[in-house]
């Protein structure tokens, strides 16, 4: 086989180039709108500023205006210096004049479109009917957690790793098509967006290429030398320096709620779920091989994917030793890639199997689409009835109005709020108010994983606040004196001077 093209006989008859449907992009476009809608519904709606955006948005804001976050800059920078996506988004914002809510919504849509393109391209190569491809797209809208990895297959907000994953899926499709250069370029782009997600795809495809292409083995070996050299430099002298240290008990205690980081503490059920991907992939591939319908490079793709599980096992001794870098890389996320290939194969078994009955594929697609519609409707209509399908801007509610007022205050103002305020109100003070906050438990503890000093700072502040529900005015004044705080936001009536109020939320001046 040529290293650049898959033989025509190995391609499905309805697949042309990487256009995933028989005749034109029109058919793909017709599938794309339902895919985006169902993916969003099954993520309980799109929300600007939610969850991990508690880090990414302040990092971008800091790039746009260095005067922001004079106190929290060190916390933000401890993770931001490991990425370039914040600088990239800030650059686009300056160049286009678009607001961050619009840019993040656009990036969210781009990630879903790219995921659909990559998945449909994969299906078009591995399946024999367009209905099976439609079934795969429907299956991928069914958001679910990758067990004990801190990762979901979809998010209801823009996360760089979702975009990097989508680039990775497309790279896998190009690899199956016979290309060597395009997958490398796509993984490189993904690396700039989210380095760890891209790295796992890189390992997958490098191993697969080594297996599939004899002529590529020497170049791959030669390329490994500078890659290893750069990795060693990054760990010893570069941005990852100092991360071969071990987590001490105090540092580990700050991560006690992040149980997904410590694979050796997983319950048996987690091991069973995550390791179940392996026999599913092997069984489906064997069936395809025995039936004579496995395509060229498919064996290499399976070997590359399963190599990720071996690499995960290789991390376990370092986890046992508490090596910081081994934990910070979160190798359990390799199961996200295994989940992808397992879903591709499970849909094939359900929709086509060996015999390829068209009606069976149609029925499978119909069932998965119906399941996605019912589940997505339930999430928004029943479980989260107060959410919109798409909340692109900060909500115009009491919290949103308080945060709008916060943005009018001095950039040096520092706020005291419930440490769980981001989970309670949907966005953090840093995101919605663009101001420093004493502590935001959900994201600050996660950032502490990358820096022991930050972890100790977060622990100290959480202890200092104590039970926010019973905090007294005197204690608020003490905290203000210790940490130079300016405002307190709470829904409690307190004997403090009111600076602003919206509904049940009061902003009190602390000095």
Explain the overall architecture.
- By secondary structure, the chain is mainly α.
- The protein has 2 domains: 33-383, no CATH class; 398-509, no CATH class.
- Helices cover 60% and strands 5% of the residues.
- The protein is built from 23 helices and 9 strands.
- It has helices spanning 25-41, 53-64, 73-80, 85-96, 100-126, 130-140, 160-177, 181-193, 195-212, 217-236, 249-254, 268-275, 277-290, 298-321, 324-328, 334-351, 358-383, 398-406, 421-425, 429-433, 441-447, 452-465, 473-483, and strands at 46-47, 145-146, 151-152, 390-391, 414-416, 436-437, 487-490, 498-502, 505-509.
- A 5-stranded mixed beta sheet has the order 6-5-7-9-8, with helices on one face. A two-stranded parallel ribbon has the order 1-4.
- It is globular.
- The relative contact order is 0.12.
- The model is unreliable at 1-16 (pLDDT under 50).
Question: What is this entry, summarized?
Answer:
The chain has helices at residues 25-41, 53-64, 73-80, 85-96, 100-126, 130-140, 160-177, 181-193, 195-212, 217-236, 249-254, 268-275, 277-290, 298-321, 324-328, 334-351, 358-383, 398-406, 421-425, 429-433, 441-447, 452-465, 473-483, and strands spanning 46-47, 145-146, 151-152, 390-391, 414-416, 436-437, 487-490, 498-502, 505-509. The protein is mainly alpha-helical and 511 residues long.
Which tags fit this structure?
two-stranded parallel sheet, 511 residues, five-stranded mixed sheet, 2 domains, mainly alpha, disordered N terminus
């Amino acid at each position: 086989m040529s290293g650049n093209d898959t033989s025509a006989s190995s391609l499905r008859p309805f697949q042309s180039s990487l256009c995933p449907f028989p005749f034109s992009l029109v058919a793909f476009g017709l599938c794309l709108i339902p895919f985006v809608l169902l993916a969003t519904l099954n993520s309980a709606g799109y929300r600007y500023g939610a969850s991990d955006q508690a880090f990414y948005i302040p990092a971008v804001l800091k790039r746009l205006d260095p005067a922001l976050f004079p106190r929290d800059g060190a916390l933000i920078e401890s993770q931001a210096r490991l990425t370039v996506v914040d600088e990239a988004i800030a650059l686009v914002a300056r160049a286009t004049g678009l607001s961050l809510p619009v840019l993040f919504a656009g990036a969210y849509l781009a990630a879903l479109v790219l995921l659909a393109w990559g998945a449909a391209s994969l299906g078009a190569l591995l399946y024999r009917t367009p209905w099976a491809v439609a079934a795969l797209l429907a299956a991928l809208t069914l958001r679910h957690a990758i067990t004990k990895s801190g990762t979901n297959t979809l998010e209801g907000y823009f996360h760089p790793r979702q975009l990097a994953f989508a680039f990775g899926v497309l790279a896998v499709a190009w690899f199956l098509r016979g290309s060597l250069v395009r997958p490398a370029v796509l993984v490189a782009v993904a690396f700039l967006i989210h380095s760890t997600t891209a790295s796992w795809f890189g390992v997958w495809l490098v191993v697969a290429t080594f297996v599939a292409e004899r002529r590529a083995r020497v170049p791959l070996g030669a390329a490994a030398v500078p890659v290893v050299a750069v990795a060693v430099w990054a760990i010893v002298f570069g941005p990852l320096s100092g991360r071969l240290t071990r987590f001490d008990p105090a540092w580990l205690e700050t991560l006690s709620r992040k149980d997904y980081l410590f694979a050796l503490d997983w319950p048996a059920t987690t091991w069973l779920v995550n390791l179940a991907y392996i026999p599913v992939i092997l069984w489906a591939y064997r069936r395809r091989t025995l039936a004579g319908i496995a395509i060229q490079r498919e064996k290499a793709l399976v070997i590359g994917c399963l190599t990720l599980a071996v690499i995960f096992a290789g991390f376990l001794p370092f986890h046992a030793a508490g090596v910081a870098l081994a934990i910070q890389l979160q190798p359990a996320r390799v199961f996200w890639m295994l989940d992808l290939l397992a879903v591709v194969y499970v849909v094939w078994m359900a929709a086509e199997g060996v015999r390829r009955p068209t009606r069976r594929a149609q029925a499978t697609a119909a069932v998965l689409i119906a399941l996605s519609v019912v589940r997505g409707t339930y999430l928004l209509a029943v479980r989260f009835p107060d959410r919109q399908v798409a909340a692109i801007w900060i909500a115009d509610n009491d919290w949103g109005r308080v945060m709008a007022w916060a943005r009018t205050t001095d950039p040096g103002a520092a706020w005291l709020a419930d440490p769980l305020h981001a989970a309670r109100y949907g966005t953090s003070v840093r995101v919605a108010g663009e101001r420093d906050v004493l502590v935001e438990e959900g994201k600050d503890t996660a950032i502490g994983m990358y820096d022991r000093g930050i972890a100790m700072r977060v622990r100290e502040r959480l202890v200092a606040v104590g039970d926010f529900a019973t905090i007294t005015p005197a204690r608020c004044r003490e905290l203000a004196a210790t940490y130079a705080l300016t405002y307190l936001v709470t829904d409690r009536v307190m004997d403090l001077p009111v600076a602003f109020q919206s509904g049940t939320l009061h902003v009190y001046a602390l000095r």
